[in-house]
Write a structure and sequence with these properties.
Layout: E1 9-13, H1 19-26, H2 32-35, H3 43-52, H4 57-60, E2 63-69, E3 75-85, E4 90-97, H5 107-122, E5 127-133, H6 137-145, E6 149-160, E7 163-173
Parallel strand pairs: 4-5
Antiparallel strand pairs: 1-2, 2-3, 3-4, 5-7, 6-7
Length: 179
């Protein structure tokens, strides 16, 4: 079985053809509170980003992959490893399924399962973490289903819709990797 391929989805590197998809996500203001974005991105900036996406995770300190359904090249979402820290063998993880109609269909779960396996087996990471708005019940349910444990709450952390909201920090430790 391939590390980044599952039953119904696979994860692939970003391609220049993903420009419009990434542009739509980065400029969707409904997603900005989740991604801590405050300004739109031009097609030019995203094109330059995609040109530089060839850097590996050790150079860029992040890895962004397209989530695609099997037998389709078109992405339905993005998954990120960010704040990659090879010294301490950890990274943050974030998942976004673009269209609401594609959510709650098992795509996020399969994506998370694939990326956990990849992070622990291929990258040799000791831990993954996720920052989740305490009101995001779907993400809370998804990450806890895969063994992520809440290790703290950042009170009134993000200003969303004129109100401060708490953000929980979740962690998954790879107990099979004793370094």
């Amino acid at each position: 079985m391939l590390t980044l391929s599952g039953t119904s989805i696979y994860l692939r590197a970003l391609e220049p053809e993903d420009l419009e998809f990434v542009h739509a996500i980065e400029n969707d203001e409904t997603i900005w509170p989740i991604s801590n974005t405050q300004t739109p991105y031009s097609r030019y900036l995203i094109r330059e980003y995609l040109k530089n996406a060839r850097q590996d995770i050790y150079e860029a300190k992040q890895l962004r992959l397209a989530i695609c359904k099997q037998r389709s090249f078109q992405p339905v979402g993005l998954v990120d490893l960010f704040d990659f820290d090879p010294k301490n063998n950890r990274a943050g993880i974030g998942i976004l399924i673009k269209d609401e109609g594609e959510r709650n269909q098992g795509i996020g779960g399969e994506t998370l399962e694939l990326l956990i396996r990849y992070s622990f087996t291929q990258l040799g990471l000791h831990q993954l973490y996720a920052n989740i708005d305490t009101q995001n019940s779907a993400s809370l349910k998804l990450f806890t289903k895969f063994g992520f444990v809440e290790i703290g709450v950042k009170k009134q952390w993000n200003l969303i819709g004129g109100k401060y909201r708490d953000e929980a920090l979740f962690q998954l430790i790879n107990n099979h990797n004793k370094k």
